[in-house]
Design goal:
Blueprint (H helix, E strand, L loop, with lengths): L1 H24 L14 E7 L6 H9 L8 E7 L14 E6 L7 H10 L6 E4 L4 E2 L4 H11 L4 E3 L2 E3 L5 H22 L11 E4 H6 L15 H10 L4 E3 L7 E3 L5 H13 L7 H25 L5 H26 L7 H19 L4 E3 L2 E3 L2
């Protein structure tokens, strides 16, 4: 039995080591101060975000980019209290979401696409803040590379609470896996809070056709379809000046349901590598949990569990450390406690996502 656990651990360590290698294969991009040329439409689906939207719009006002080269479409997904635009330094308007599927966010992006006149769209979320050189960095990369889709990084703006630190560790691990997989030329994951693509590509892929029964995944399913059809035109923008900041969830229940929503789509991935990595991470975390209980019941000797736990935490730490250095200037706090709790949380989320329903924006969704 111990041999089986350590076999899983060995495969897990090799997989994470490959992601670390892939992370360094993606070179950090620095903008070249080229004259801006790309026109963008920024699409922001929202529901009941009256407090967050003014902050996001203010960050759009502060971007270092010609105001005539971008416009913003806010897609209202049946908000209880309507949001009104008072003053704006750039083109922005609100449209109502036209629901046709089980996925409000995919419908929102599809609705916005009917109004897009620019070559490029870039999506973000209502609870985000974009950096000053966000669009300029995307534009410079687009000018220098033959690309039709660009995935960017997302990080949290954390307060000094354990919940926030735990979420930062979780998101950092996902971002590390994302960058690493692109470096291995097996990209399968991205974040819709910082995601750009050509309108023509969206149309060539028939949008979200084929996966609009799944509530989430407006980002990863479109990415995987694009990589399958145009693998050389899908890149990762590893640029510090293009990192979008978002808010962590406010309580454990919201975090749990958010992660269940993210995990629920894994079984529908087209990417074989993505499915394989998801299984390896799941069994790596589950082995840690089972090993802990075997220790508690006296089946495993203490040194065996310590060796197992140390090896897993050590390889995780390397990926987390290099990713965190890219994402933020602050270190991850409560790292040891979060690392020990994470396998229990992750395993519970994965198992629940196979059968359970979840809440999202005051709505219930089934698996």
């Amino acid at each position: 039995m111990i041999f089986g656990f350590f076999s899983i651990l060995a495969i897990y360590i090799i997989s994470i080591a490959l992601l670390i290698y892939g992370f360094f294969k993606i070179k950090t991009y620095q903008k070249k101060n080229l004259d801006p040329k790309t026109s963008f439409t920024i699409i922001v689906p929202f529901r009941n975000e009256k407090e967050n939207l003014p902050i996001l719009l203010e960050s759009f006002s502060n971007v270092n980019y010609p105001k005539n080269l971008f416009k913003v479409i806010l897609v209202d997904d049946s908000s209880i209290e309507k949001f009104q635009i008072l003053n704006s330094k750039f083109q922005v308007f609100i449209v109502d979401n036209f629901r046709t599927s089980n996925s409000p966010k995919k419908d929102a992006i599809t609705t916005a696409m009917q109004h897009v006149k620019t070559d490029w769209v870039i999506t973000t979320d209502a609870d985000c803040i974009v950096p000053e050189n966000w669009l300029l960095t995307f534009d410079n990369y687009i000018q220098e590379n033959k690309v039709s889709m660009l995935a960017g990084a997302v990080t949290y703006e954390c307060d000094n609470s354990f919940l926030d630190h735990f979420q930062q560790l979780d998101l950092t691990s996902l971002q590390g896996a994302t960058i690493g997989s692109f470096g291995l030329k097996n990209g399968f994951m991205c974040n819709g809070a910082n995601f750009a693509y050509k309108k023509s590509l969206f149309e060539d892929l028939n949008g979200f056709e084929g996966n609009n029964k799944i509530a989430s995944g407006d980002d990863v399913f479109l990415l995987q379809k694009a990589i399958e059809k145009f693998p050389k035109e899908v890149h990762y923008l590893k640029a510090e000046e293009a990192i979008v900041t978002t808010k962590p969830t406010e309580n454990w229940k919201s975090l749990f349901y958010q992660r269940v929503r993210w995990a629920a789509k894994t079984s529908s991935y087209k990417s074989t590598f993505g499915k394989f990595l998801g299984l390896i991470v799941f069994f790596g975390n589950l082995s840690f949990v089972v090993g802990f209980f075997l220790l508690i019941f006296g089946i495993w000797p203490y040194p065996i569990f310590v060796i197992f736990a140390f090896a897993k935490v050590a390889i995780d730490f390397v990926l987390l450390s290099i990713t965190n250095q890219f994402l933020t200037t602050t270190r991850i706090k409560s790292l040891l406690l979060s690392s020990l709790l994470y396998p229990f949380f992750s395993s519970t989320v994965a198992l629940y996502s196979l059968f359970g329903s979840y809440e999202w924006k005051d709505r219930k969704f089934k698996k």
